[in-house]
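Hi support team,

I submitted a single chain yesterday and got back a structure, but I'm not sure I'm reading the token output correctly. Could someone confirm the output below corresponds to the sequence I sent? I've pasted both exactly as they appear in my results page.

Thanks,
R.
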Amino acid sequence: MNNKKVKRRSEERKHRISNQQLLKALKMGVNLNKIDRLNTYSIHGVKYFDLSGITIEGEVLDISHLEHVDFSRSRLVNVKFTSNSKLVGFRFESSDLVNVSFISTNQNIETKLTLENFAFKGAKIEKSDFSEIVFSGENYFLRSKLYDVDFSNSNFGESNICDFTQSKFYGCSFTSSILDSTNLCDCLFSDCDLRSTRFNLTNLSAVAFKNCIVNSKTIFDEKIILEKNKSFENAHETYIQLKNLFRNTGHLLESQKFYLREVYTRGRKEKKRLNRIFLDILSFFSKVFQKPWQIFLGSFFSVFFFSGLYLINGIGKSCNGNITKDYFKCLYFSVITFTTVGYGDFAPCGISRLFAAMEALLGPAFLTLFMAALIKKSIQE
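Hi R., thanks for writing in. Yes, this is the structure output for that exact sequence:
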């Protein structure tokens, strides 16, 4: 049995073209259909040319004439792939790419190079240039490791499927890139440049951002698709990541937006009803009272509202007698109760005591919110 396997592998080697011959053919621009003894295989009826395991170093290759080529398990170092047209069906699964770039030779400088149906599953990519590229069709980067890769001004939003699941990005640049509708589930972004990057309708489940750079033009959905799909626990964890991402880079306004979504989703995933009600109230107040003028108006309304409630049973120096229901005195009592001054010249009577206790708790809360809003505004300016 073993002898048969050895003999079969020996025959395969005899009938397979060598790496040197392949490289020579690529440099000469020979159509792969014309190469004898080149292994091929089919996936869903598509014929792929098998160049897996090839090693190429320090070459500039015009691959305009190539499509459906498998470079899996290959090692490519200092290689420039050039093309004047769209590239279709290249596979780099489990490959090692160092300083590799894809460059458009189209004379129209506004036309970006398009990569369609590319696969980089399990690849290791270092110091490579993927900038100014449009990805279309189905593209897979699952479980890839990328170091110092430049994706600046690239567009992944044209893809039907663009899957980065469990990929890790270290020091990569996505400046002004479009990552709409991509799958970033369980991805790690460490020391990456995300300035002016767009993440609309992106799956951010279990994503992690560490020491990344963002700016005010870095766009995420206000409500990420995890929340829209009612996956509140995953959405809550993702909002924490986004809140910290913007807060750590000094963008407090954007950080506040994701803090509000964090509080809301924390309430949605809470099983205890009382805890959920409390978090919903906190979410409401945090959302409504964000700016100093909003908090001031809320305080103004509260004072007048409670002064009206005190008219129910009235106030007085002694609740045994001499009770007054004069509105202006009730308004005065509401102000000193809200500010917790408490001169002692008036006291609530009957159910007004409950209202006074509520207002005494509400007043300091509004004052705290007001000071926090002023500090935040001064820092942003």
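A quick pointer for reading it: Residues 17-104+113-118 form one domain. Let us know if anything else looks off.

Best,
Support desk
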